[in-house]
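Q: Hi! First time doing this. I have a protein sequence and I read that you can turn it into a structure. Is that right? Here it is:
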Amino acid sequence: MMPHVLTAFGPGRPWTFDLWQETVHGLGLPLDHLRFSCVVNGDSRLYERVSRWLSTHAGHYTLSYVDEFPDRRREGARATAAHIAGIYNRLIADLDPEAEWALCVEPDVRPGPGDLDRLLAHIAPDVGIVGCAIRSRWSGHVMAYRAKSLDPWALDRRPLRADTVDDVDSVSLGFTIIRAELLRGFAFTATPNADGTGGNGHEWSLMKRARLAGWRVLCDFGVRLRHYVEVDQWV
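A: Yes, that's right. Below is the predicted 3D structure, encoded as structure tokens:
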């Protein structure tokens, strides 16, 4: 299986490019046969580095640049969530029409050897999304949830469990396999969570689509990743 790799690079953190290189080289997949879609937000030098890497290593790729980023303190979490949803819509705009699966790889996570193979092992005819136990950048909590209700889309965080694979209603997109048909004709939105802040609404809008369509969303709690906030510091 050759997934279509999706990555968005945020502003002010050029060091994430080195982490991302390590991740994609460690996937164990032939890079010259992979298709990449990348968006770089607010860092022209990073855009140049990503462009050089893709032109050297990727079989096929699309790369775009977004210059603006909302001020979270001034414009609020909803504006930030809407902006991020727009970036993810750029990522899926050129999804390979022949791809069966997409692989979201956030540049500030570092999967270990065998982590991708472990997620791939959970693919089944009724599975739409497979994610892992990733801690939030903000709270440090594991981003795996069950729904309390669908309208509003209200979620309860799941506790970290020992080496188990569970059905959930939402997982982080940090290192996640997504059935490509879920992304075709879809638009990420800044779906607000129960407290109305927006939060990770772009992720939840996709998860809600999957669950309402009858697809299972799995979290492998044995694959545990962290978001890096500096080169050698993580949450």
